[in-house]
Write a structure and sequence with these properties.
four-stranded mixed β-sheet, 521 residues, globular, 53% helix, alpha+beta, three-stranded antiparallel β-sheet, 21 helices
Length: 521
C-alpha cells in the first residue's frame, strides 16, 4: 500500500512539474509574440505563411532589394522590423549600424533552432557552441591565427594559386581558341581555398586541385540542403527528414565530409604519437607550421585536470573550420573575380598595383610575401567592396537570453533576432547607389570612410567575429594579384545575369564561368 502511494505521489509530482513547464513555455511564447508584434512591419506578410515564401534563398535577394526601394522601408527609420515565418512565428530583424551593433557586441548565443540543422554536419564547434565551451575554445584557438603565424603562410598562398594558374595555362594550351578560353571558377576556386586551409590550419598536404575529391561538392550540397530544410516545416523533424530524398542526400554528404576530416585528424595523431613529421614538401618549414597550427592546438590542448579534447570535439572544430575556412572564402573570391571581369577599369588598376608591388619588392614570378600583401591597398578595396555588394554571410541569427531594449522597442527573452548584414551593406544612406560596384568607397582618404562603426561587418563583429578573417583576406589578395598578373578576365555573354542566392553563405544562381586571356610577357 505504501509503495502504491509513493508511486502515485511521484506520478502526481511529475504531472505538476510538466504542467508548470508547459505554462512557463506558454507564458514565454505569448510574451514573445506580444512584444514582437509591436515591431514595425516591413512588407505585408501572408496571413498564414508570413514571409516564408520570400525567405527562399533564390528569392531573398530580390525580396530585400525590392523592400529597400519601397515605401515600407522609407517609413521605418529605426532599423528594426518584424519578420514573420508563419502566423505566430516572429523574429526581430536589425538592419542599421546601431541596431546591428547591439546584438553583435553582446554575448547572446547563436539561435539553436536555426543553426541546429548544422549540428549533424559540423557538430558543436566554434560556429555553433555557446557559453563556457565557446569561450574556452575561442581563447584556445586564437593564437593559431596570430599575425606572427600568418606571416609564414604567404608561401602557401603562392604555391596554391600557382597550381590553379598551371591548370589554366594547360587549358589555354589545349584549347583551339587560345584567346577565348572558358573556365569554371565555381569549380576551381573552392578547390583552391580548400587546398589553402588544409595546408595552413592543418599542415596537411593534399593534391585536391589536380585530383579533386568529393568534399567540396558535399559542402555545396550541405549548405543548400540545410537552408532548404529550414524553409520546410515538415522537414524539421529528424524522423521525417531522413526518410526524404533530401535527408538521404544530406546524410550521404555528411558522411563524405566526416570521412575527409577524420582522415586528416587520424594522420596527424599518428604523427604526434610517433613524434614524426610528414615527409612531403619542405620538412623543416612544415614541422615549424605543425607546432603552431590550428590542428596541433586542438590535439595537444589540456584542461586543468590534464584531460585533452575528445575525438568528437576535435572533429567538430575541424569540420567547422574546413567549412568556414574554405567555403566562405571561396564564395567571396568567386564574386571578386566575377565583378573584376565585369569591370575592366577596376581590373586593370588592380593589375597595375600588383605588378608595381612585385617590381618594387623584387618578387619572382608567382611569388607573394607577407610584406607585399600589405601594399596591395586597391586590391583590398576591391575585395572589401565585393563583400559589401555580395555579402558573404548575409544573415546572423541569435536567440535572446534576457530582455533587450533597442530604440524604445523591447525585444523579449527567448526572442529570435537576425542581424541582416545584407540589408546593412545596401543601406542607401550609408552606401549611395548601393548596387554599383565601386571600390573607391573604401579609399582611406575618402570622406565616406567616416561611416559609423558596424556599418560594414563582412566578418561579423564583436566577440564572435570571424577568427580567420585575416587569413582569408591575405589569401584572397594573393589570388587576385597573381591571377591578374597573368590573365585578363572577361564575362561570357551568358554570365551577365548571375544573381546572388542568399543561403547560409552567398552563392551564385549558377556556376560562374569566366573567359581568360593570357597577357603578353
Amino acid at each position: 500500500m505504501a509503495s502504491e502511494l509513493l508511486v502515485a505521489v511521484v506520478i502526481g509530482a511529475i504531472a505538476i512539474l510538466a504542467k508548470l513547464d508547459f505554462f512557463r513555455w506558454l507564458y514565454k511564447t505569448v510574451r514573445c509574440i506580444y512584444y514582437l508584434r509591436k515591431l514595425p512591419l516591413g512588407i505585408q506578410p501572408h496571413w498564414v505563411t508570413g514571409h516564408s515564401y520570400h525567405a527562399h534563398p533564390d528569392r531573398m535577394f530580390d525580396f530585400i532589394t525590392d523592400y529597400q526601394q519601397g515605401e515600407e522601408y522609407k517609413r521605418n527609420p529605426v532599423g528594426i522590423y518584424r519578420n514573420d515565418m508563419a502566423t505566430c512565428v516572429h523574429m526581430a530583424g536589425l538592419e542599421t549600424p546601431d541596431t546591428v551593433a547591439t546584438i553583435l557586441k553582446s554575448s547572446e548565443p547563436k539561435n539553436p533552432y536555426v543553426y541546429g540543422f548544422l549540428v549533424p554536419w559540423i557538430g558543436d564547434g566554434l560556429l555553433i557552441s555557446n557559453g563556457k565551451k565557446w569561450a574556452r575554445n575561442r581563447r584556445l584557438l586564437t593564437p593559431a591565427f596570430h599575425f606572427d603565424i600568418l606571416k609564414g603562410y604567404a608561401s602557401v598562398y603562392g604555391s596554391a594559386v600557382g597550381v590553379l594558374l598551371e591548370k589554366w595555362r594547360t587549358a589555354v594550351h589545349e584549347s583551339e581558341h587560345a584567346t577565348d578560353v572558358r573556365v569554371n571558377i565555381s569549380h576551381d576556386v573552392p578547390l583552391l581555398t580548400l587546398d589553402v586551409i588544409v595546408q595552413c590550419a592543418m599542415s596537411y598536404q593534399t593534391d585536391c586541385q589536380r585530383n579533386p575529391n568529393r568534399y567540396t561538392d558535399a559542402v555545396m550540397d550541405l549548405v543548400k540542403l540545410t537552408q532548404m530544410r529550414g524553409m520546410d516545416i515538415f522537414k524539421h523533424l529528424d524522423f521525417i527528414y531522413y526518410r526524404t530524398n533530401d535527408g538521404r542526400r544530406y546524410k550521404e554528404a555528411c558522411d563524405i565530409a566526416h570521412k575527409y576530416s577524420e582522415s586528416i585528424i587520424k594522420e596527424r595523431r599518428c604523427h604526434l604519437s610517433r613524434a614524426e613529421v610528414p615527409s612531403d614538401g619542405d620538412d623543416s618549414d612544415l614541422e615549424e607550421r605543425e607546432k603552431r597550427d590550428f590542428l596541433h592546438i586542438l590535439l595537444t590542448a589540456r584542461d586543468t585536470n590534464g584531460d585533452g579534447m575528445s575525438f568528437e570535439d576535435v572533429q567538430s572544430e575541424v569540420d567547422t573550420f574546413l567549412f568556414e575556412g574554405h567555403d566562405t572564402t571561396a564564395s567571396a573570391l568567386q564574386w571578386a573575380l566575377y565583378f573584376l571581369a565585369g569591370h575592366p577599369a577596376v581590373q586593370e588598376r588592380c593589375r597595375l598595383e600588383a605588378r608595381r608591388v612585385a617590381s618594387e619588392q623584387y618578387l619572382a614570378v608567382g611569388e607573394v610575401t607577407y610584406d607585399s600583401l600589405q601594399e596591395l591597398h586597391y586590391i583590398e578595396q576591391a575585395l572589401k567592396e565585393t563583400m559589401r555588394l555580395a555579402t558573404t554571410v548575409p544573415l546572423i541569427h541569435r536567440a535572446l537570453t534576457h530582455d533587450i531594449n533597442i530604440k524604445g522597442y523591447l525585444l523579449p527573452k527567448g526572442a529570435w533576432v537576425v542581424a541582416n548584414l545584407f540589408t546593412l551593406h545596401h543601406e542607401p544612406d550609408l552606401w549611395p547607389d548601393p548596387m554599383k560596384y565601386d571600390p573607391s568607397r573604401f579609399d582611406a582618404n575618402a570622406e565616406n570612410e567616416s561611416r559609423p562603426a558596424f556599418s560594414y561587418a563582412p566578418f561579423s563583429g564583436g566577440p564572435r567575429n570571424c577568427i580567420g578573417q585575416n587569413l582569408a583576406m591575405e589569401e584572397m589578395k594573393s589570388a587576385v594579384s597573381l591571377i591578374l598578373q597573368e590573365f585578363q578576365l572577361s564575362l561570357p555573354d551568358d554570365m551577365h545575369d548571375v544573381k546572388q542566392c542568399l543561403y547560409l553563405v552567398n552563392k551564385p544562381s549558377k556556376p560562374i564561368h569566366l573567359i581568360i586571356k593570357p597577357l603578353a610577357e
